[in-house]
Amino acid sequence: xxxxxxxxxxxxxxxxxxxxxxxxxxxxxxxxxxxxxxxxxxxxxxxxxxxxxxxxxxxxxxxxxxxxxxxxxxxxxxxxxxxxxxxxxxxxxxxxxxxxxxxxxxxxxxxxxxxxxxxxxxxxxxxxxxxxxxxxxxxxxxxxxxxxxxxxxxxxxxxxxxxxxxxxxxxxxxxxxxxxxxxxxxxxxxxxxxxxxxxxxxxxxxxxxxxxxxxxxxxxxxxxxxxxxxxxxxxxxxxxxxxxxxxxxxxxxxxxxxxxxxxxxxxxxxxxxxxxxxxxxxxxxxxxxxxxxxxxxxxxxxxxxxxxxxxxxxxxxxxxxxxxxxxxxxxxxxxxxxxxxxxxxxxxxxxxxxxxxxxxxxxxxxxxxxxxxxxxxxxxxxxxxxxxxxxxxxxxxxxxxxxxxxxxxxxxxxxxxxxxxxxxxxxxxxxxxxxxxxxxxxxxxxxxxxxxxxxxxxxxxx
Length: 462
Fold this sequence. Notes:
By secondary structure, the chain is α+β, with helices and mostly antiparallel strands. It has three domains: 23-119, Roll (PH-domain like); 124-199; 204-390 and 431-456, no CATH class. The chain contains 17 helices and nine strands. It has helices spanning 58-61, 88-98, 107-119, 128-138, 146-163, 171-198, 221-249, 254-257, 271-284, 305-341, 343-350, 364-389, 397-405, 408-415, 421-430, 434-437, 439-456, and strands spanning 23-26, 32-37, 41-46, 49-54, 62-67, 70-76, 81-87, 216-218, 356-358. A hairpin with a 5-residue loop joins strand 1 (23-26) and strand 2 (32-37). Helix 4 (128-138) runs antiparallel to helix 5 (146-163) and helix 4 (128-138) packs parallel to helix 6.
């Protein structure tokens, strides 16, 4: 490392003073040099060879590096570099004469420690309080009970703010706090709107809407396929990025160094698993499934390896659940507004979670149908992705969670099934067993559909 001029007038020229007996040091080849140090210059002489280093070049031509209990000094001359291995006290005396660093014997070691600390990567800190605050804020949109989640999220945010110091390692906590606060504000607004909607009688007199909204039809296969592809790619990108970010938070920088901490789908798409396989299955008329590029994890040196692996594994499905909650909150807000101002439109769009477009509609009606259809698909796709990946069958995320939740001996036995996991997956797929394993997902979707079409929006007709 190079030394740094610490004198206040280093930019305006040399300072007077200094002096003392010259140093007699042998270089790395045994040749002895006489080193004279002054605030204005450092002179090196050996036989007929002599060169000077003026003060203006101290920071570029004098290098220092601690080596155990000694110090390596290197001086760059016009034609050669000269290096010495000297004691810390001699090095401190030299720097005291040229007035560029503190003169204490341990100054060099302290400087090296500071620079080494600066070179180390700053691992982001993340706390359970931040995660729970985000989860509660994401549920604050629910009618009535959302106020409870909002209060919990606000209390957790306040607690986190009081305990978090503004350091480089905590900037991720502060960024998450900003996101959580935004979700909290939005959730409270939707909760107030939907709660108020529940208490209002259904405006039957406003059902006489234009005929364009009396009936509806499916969005159409091409448009529906486009929407599904967009939603699936976005959801998979968020899922895989959540794995990579949580691995980084746990102390594994491998996925981040490979560019996986990004929402860009190009970083997560697997040519066969994301494109070719789903296309072949769709063309053949079979049930469609696929996979994204797995996020590499290297947790050998991470403390509490099992806990870290569980957190990384559930981060993907957890991100899908948060995205589904966000989509549902926007759907609920739109439904509440339409229920009051355009109930016929609301009846059309919220009778089920199937995307529809008003018959013969154009302009704003078609745009509204697209937005609501996109939100419905986002909710459905992310609920299915989350619960599908939590199935404890290798190589799905749930298998890693179950393996590390088991006692170590039983976990090792379960891990031996991993090489045969894909064969088991194909067996369940061919026997249509996933329709039963995903029954909770369809129950959630049906419940939400009933809540929107027959509960929050229309059941309290008065």
